[in-house]
Amino acid sequence: MLKEGADVVEKMGWVKKVLEYFGAYRPTLKSMTINYRNLAGEVSLLLHVPDQFRRNITMIEIPAYQNFQIADMMDEGFSRIGNLWQFQDGRWRLDPSQLPKSEKFLVMMRGELPRESLSQIVRVQPATNRDQTEEFDRYWLDAMIRNVDILEQMWQDLEVEDVNNMVKIGVERCFYANVPKEARRRLKAVQRWISVGHGRSRQDVFSAWTELRQASRRMEIPVDRIVEIVYGLTTGELFTEFVSVDRPYQLGEVKREEQVVELFPKRMMVEAVTRLSLKQPTATGYVMFKKKEYNDKIRESFPEPT
Fold first, then answer.
1. CATH number, position 74
2. Would 125 disulfide with which of 94, 120, 142, 305, CB 3.0-4.6 Å?
């Protein structure tokens, strides 16, 4: 088990380097906060600096690996002394003789974690569609901190923020099933007209033009209005009304996938976000897509052909 814990630290980039350089001061990892989305890490480290070290060491130096920085420092009386650290020539430097008379110091540090390190700490299972009915689709969410028993030996507190899982919700069938046939026909006619317009076949151009005119007679709504309605129905702001997520997750970004299959957007991208910690190392739940209500909204958005 100790070996596994060492393996985790080994892959943590600047955290491992800092522990090595602070080794003489018996560093104790007190807490760590990781942002899963942007890989930012904040570490609080307790150092023991007895008087004998101050007399024997003229300067503490730590290279700034992976943009690592000293954010702040406090003594046992919670007095902030972070300004004693100076950044020079790519290194953080501290003169121990300037430290107040205290043997314990809390150092707060920031840096970026390698992606492979984060995968050793957190597992996010890709969302899967578990249930489909006429009324809704549900997508299963599952995230967890790995090896909690090991990490509890290393940190008193560990939190992972912004643990996000992007759910792909198919909407293409919703449009094909609920957009009036003549509106679909007009969209397809316009697409064909644009496509053959780049070619040299007069027969194809004439055929496409005839098809477009016939489709236009059946439905007065202009094609740009049809496109406007479709894109309005796939904005994140509107689509949010038709999705919900179980706690401890929250809805994050909701957006349209840019890939369009023939006439309509294929999927909506719905982000579910949660926070993990050693006290709450797992997060499960569902993203629910209110499919029937969304289908009704599509039908309501298109006028009946005259």
1. 2.60.40
2. 142
Number of compact structural domains in the chain: 3
Domain match, 54 and 95 both: yes
pTM for this one? 0.77
Contact predicate 268/172, CB 8 Å: no
Buried b (16+ CB within 10 A) or exposed e, 283-301: bebbbbbbbeebbebbeee
Q: How many helices (H) and strands (E) does the chain have?
A: 11, 16
Write out the residue range of the structural domain in which residue 155 sits: 122-174+228-301
Does 164 share its domain with 80?
Answer: no
In tens digits, what is the pLDDT along the chain, a chain of 306 residues?
444 545 555 556 677 777 777 777 788 877 889 999 998 889 888 888 887 777 677 788 888 776 788 889 988 888 888 888 888 888 888 888 888 888 888 989 888 888 888 888 899 998 887 788 889 999 999 999 988 888 887 788 899 999 999 999 999 899 888 888 777 776 765 555 444 444 444 444 334 444 444 444 555 667 777 778 888 899 999 999 999 999 999 999 999 987 655 668 889 999 999 999 999 999 999 999 999 999 999 999 886 655
The C-alpha atoms of residue 223 and residue 81 are separated, in whole angstroms, by 66
